[in-house]
Amino acid sequence: MEYRIGAMMSFNSLEGVTERFEKAREIGLNCCQIIMNPALYTDEAVEVFKAAREKTGIEYTALWARWTGPSVWNFTDGPLTLGLVPPAYRAMRMNEVLAGANFAYKLGITDVITHVGFLPENPNDPDYTGTIAALKHICNVLKPRGQYFLFETGQETPITVVRAIHDIGTGNAGINFDTANVILYGKSSAVDSVKIFGQYVRNLHLKDGNFPTDPYHLGKETPLGEGSVNVPEVLRLLKECGYTGPYIMEREISGEKQIEDIKNGRELVLSVLKSLEE
Question: What DSSP element (H or E) covers 137?
Answer without folding.
Answer: helix 126-142
